[in-house]
Specification:
InterPro entries: HTH_MarR-typ, MarR/SlyA-like, WH-like_DNA-bd_sf, WH_DNA-bd_sf. By secondary structure, this protein is mainly α. Helices cover 62% and strands 9% of the residues. The protein has 2 domains: 69 residues; 66 residues, Arc Repressor Mutant, subunit A, CATH 1.10.10. Strands 1-3-2 form a 3-stranded antiparallel sheet. Helix 3 packs antiparallel against helix 7.
Length: 184
């Protein structure tokens, strides 16, 4: 099964669950909705499928929040890395784990919107440094507020300790990026 058909399947399952709960498509899926979904026959109670199920729901909510802020996930991640300060273009590609040619497209988009700027490195004219602009910082603040809202909703039943434990557990999952096929 390819990634697109797998994603379509999750979307159908989510839509079926929403209809069964008499939800409309503009409502936010809450933790209780997801718990109810766990008790339903879909998805089966296998850890990998549960992780994929919740990941799909989370990804949908995060993308929706990002779109209201006007950014794609790639653009938001790029700005988040630049928020710490200017970076060389090669270092930024490494942090984002994208091919430098892919980064060029991302930066073209961000520059076109006035959210980031590339400048030649004065010490090495072959290098470009990338910096976030004031408009980029404003867009990122709006993005972070939207993402905070989603995370508050998703993890409202979790204490801070639970959230840290979840982070630690997720960090231990052996997710080899070589096994991932990007759909974007």
């Amino acid at each position: 099964m390819n990634m697109k058909s797998s994603n379509d399947r999750w979307c159908r399952i989510i839509e079926q669950h929403q209809r069964s709960k008499a939800c409309n498509h503009s409502s936010i899926v809450t933790m209780s909705d997801m718990t109810a979904a766990q008790e339903s026959p879909h998805p089966p109670q296998r850890l990998g499928l549960l992780l994929a199920w919740h990941g799909s729901i989370t990804e949908t909510l995060m993308k929706k929040a990002l779109s209201t802020a006007g950014l794609s996930p790639r653009h938001a991640m790029t700005l988040m890395h630049l928020e710490e300060g200017p970076l060389g273009q090669r270092a930024l590609a490494e942090r984002l784990e994208v091919d430098p040619s892919v980064l060029v497209g991302i930066l073209n988009d961000l520059e076109g919107e006035g959210l980031a700027v590339r400048r030649r490195d004065p010490a090495d004219r072959r290098r470009h440094n990338v910096a976030i602009t004031d408009a980029g910082s404003t867009a990122l603040a709006k993005t972070n507020a939207a993402l905070d809202e989603v995370e508050l909703s998703l993890f409202s039943a979790f204490s801070r300790a639970d959230q840290e434990a979840l982070r630690a557990l997720l960090g231990r999952i052996d997710s080899n990026p070589d096994h991932f096929t990007c759909g974007e």
